[in-house]
Amino acid sequence: MTQVATREAANDRQEEVRRRGRGLGWMSLGLGVAQLAAPDTVRRMSGVDDSATSRAVVPLVGARELVHAAGLLTSRRKSVWAWTRVVGDAMDLTALGMALAHRGGRRRRRLLAVTGAVAGITVLDLLTAVQATRADGTGAVPTVRGARKGASMELTATTTIRKPASEVYAFWRDLENLPTFMAHLDQVRTTGDRTSHWTADAPFGKDVKWDAEITDEEPGEKIAWRSTGNADVPNAGTVRFVAAPDGVSTEVHVVLVYDIPGGAVGKAVAKYFGEEPHQQLDDDLRRLKQVLETGEVVRSDGAPWGKRARKEFPQRPAQPLSDAELAKGAGR
Amino acid sequence: MRANTWAGRNKVEVRDVPDPKILNKRDAIVQITSTAICGSDLHLVDGYVPTMQDGDVMGHEFMGEVIEVGSGVPADRLRVGDRVVVPFPIACGACAACAAELYSCCENSNPNAGIAEKMFGHPTAGIFGYSHLTGGFAGGQAQYARVPFADVGPLKIESDLTDEQVLFLSDILPTGYMGAEMCDIQRSDVVAVWGAGPVGQFAMDSARVLGAAKVIAIDKEPYRLRMAEQAGHIAVNFDDVDVRSQLLELTGGRGPDKCIDAVGMEATHGSGHIAAYDRVKQAVRSETERPHALRQAIMSCRSGGVVSVIGVYGGFLDKFPAGAWMNRSLTLRTGQCHVQRYMRPLLERIERGDIDPTRIITHRMPLDEAPHGYDIFKNKQDNCEKIVLKP
Asked: What is the pTM of this model?
């Protein structure tokens, strides 16, 4: 529990940093647009409307602000862009210092006010940049990657299959069918009425095996299962079969929960699932639909392995497989 | 085998590639006897359809003889030795889309459905030789092709019609026909067709077959317009006249009742500054289309009319005249052709002599000359309208 709580705290911190980064981005956008659209107003307000140099400098600073804004608003890596703002602040403060040295009276007062504001913003930028850099270091992004400290991950997906619920249910209930559409499974062997033994080829370079039992089922409607004993990655799942409104099809709703351990195993699992863990389950359901509706997983020359989100592009060229590729099993 | 392959933007190359094999039980291998270059192949070569890769076998209009069938193809559907025309969309025949005869939206035939879904919101069918977005299937500008779901798509030709009479059932004849069918043509209708390329010509013939009172062809290539005129249609050359005023003139000021865009994403047109605007936006990839024909069709169509789009679009376009479309009660209909739906009825029309698909063929050449064929087709040299390749 504490590990999960730690992760959540890290995520909260990072979300706060992101939010502030975006805030600074919007500020840059506003400043940039003002400096480009109404440079003379900006020059008057800052007390530098007497200088010819400022006529060139103010729009340039405006253009630079737009670069900050683009980076901060669109990039996930707020730290780098926050540092560009700190550099920009340093340039601005230098320019303002030079301007101050040559002015007195009303203009000097305006310049002092602007300099004070820029100094304040510099502090905020510096703080954001430092925090964003630290947050990058903890690597606590809100995906499975954060799960290296131990966490559970819930995946959901759904599809509609043009077959009656009884048939889709029966296919799934024969657990030995699962590897025909679940790409990471090597084999499922039924060991009893409700018990089974599962083998997966990922993600350690060697087989992972575990036992599972069906914990709840209603024929034609629902199957729920969970791993038993000392599974490397404790997991559980539920699949519901719901009649679709068209009267012939079945909606399949799947929920999978993985209890991802800490340490090397957890790291490997997180790496296996990558940034889009949902995609693998999505692939599985598309293959299930193909198997039930067309008889098997559909293969093309570019994607002889069938639907695999991670291998969609680039992939091998759309030309027939060579004998060597077929022998290596590329067609399977 | 020899196959015409994509070799980067503006380049195709005939290369030696492995022979196709059965990968799925419902596959067949077809030895190709005739194949064609399609206008939409030019979008791939010009680099406007994403996800092409060096070495992709091109071509989606082909026919030939079945030389091998997988174990899942029932003998009463297809056997070795059958002569078949292969429809360009690959369709499983079993999903909800296929059940509704929306074959080009098949839910199962595209293994790269994820890319299509990102681009289009929902996936679309696999297509032969038409980028990895549509599945990464090797195409038919080759000596052989693997045909998935061979029990669903291929149309057996049992009569003695020549290859050239039936080859275009694979794509452009059904595509042109669907363009006209979507117009819901009435006896009194004037139908205007943008683009007098192969698909446009067949849309015109189909509109007449479906009963249109008058059919107008809009293009700028005199030889293409002459071809339309020889088939009995009225020609409008947008290089010589203002299209809108000419259409008003030809329709007593009403505008055409039905408009067909048989041009698509790479329109050329007379208005220099708008052409430049679209060209620049397309070049920097901030829009994928140059949709001039579509804009003009919408603006020209009479109120309450139908604009039917069979020219290919791939992504996003600017300056869509939504105001004209909405305020004048226009109906916009479109789709990649659901070829399987039209093959048999159109074969019957060919047999009856209603439509003569061979009238558009201007060039025949061996497969090895495909790069030259692409060149003259793209640059509209040598009065090129349609090229048939012989592997």
From this structure: 0.79
Q: How far is CA B199 from CA A173, B66, B256, B326, in A?
A: 50, 27, 19, 28
Instruction: Out of 3.40.50.720, 3.90.1150.10, 3.40.50.1820, 1.10.150.110, select the CATH number for domain B176-334.
Output: 3.40.50.720
Alpha helices in chain B (DSSP H): 39-45, 96-99, 113-120, 163-166, 172-181, 198-209, 222-230, 243-250, 272-283, 292-300, 322-327, 339-352, 370-378
Distance CA B365, CA A260 (A): 62
Element containing residue A252 per DSSP (H, E):
strand A250-260
Residues A234-275 have pLDDT tens digits of: 999 999 999 999 999 999 999 999 888 777 777 777 776 665
Task: Determine the pLDDT at residue B115.
Answer: 87
Residue B122, token pair as written in the block: 């929902």
Question: What secondary structure letter does DSSP report for B384?
Answer: -
Looking from the CA of B353 toward its CB, the CA atoms found within 13 Å total 0
ipTM score: 0.92
Residue extent(s) of CATH 3.40.50.720 domains in chain B: 176-334
Query: What superfamily does domain B2-171+337-390 belong to in CATH?
Result: Medium-chain alcohol dehydrogenases, catalytic domain (3.90.180.10)
Structure tokens of B230? 């020889």
Judged by CB atoms closer than 8 Å, whether chains meet at A162 and B94 is answered as yes
Cβ proximity of A223 and A238 under 8 Å: yes
- Closest CA of chain B from A316, distance in Å: 8
Give the pairing of strands B387-390 and B28-36.
antiparallel
CB B51 within 8 A of CB B132: yes
| Residues of chain B neighbouring A290 (CB-CB closer than 8 A) | 92, 108
Predicted pLDDT of residue A42? 80
CB contact under 8 A, B137 and A246: no
**Does position A331 have pLDDT exceeding 60, yes or no?**
no
Interchain proximity A318–B132, CB inside 8 Å = yes
CA distance A319 to chain B (A): 5
Does residue B182 or residue A76 have the better pLDDT?
B182
Half-sphere exposure of A35 (CA within 13 A, CB side): 20
Residue with tokens 């889709």: A168
DSSP secondary structure letters along B51-77: ---TTPBP--EEEEEEEEE-TTS-TTT
Count of CB atoms situated within 10 Å of the CB of B120:
13
Q: Which of A138, A169, A203 represents a domain boundary (last residue)?
A: A138
Helix (H, G, I), strand (E, B) or coil at A228: strand
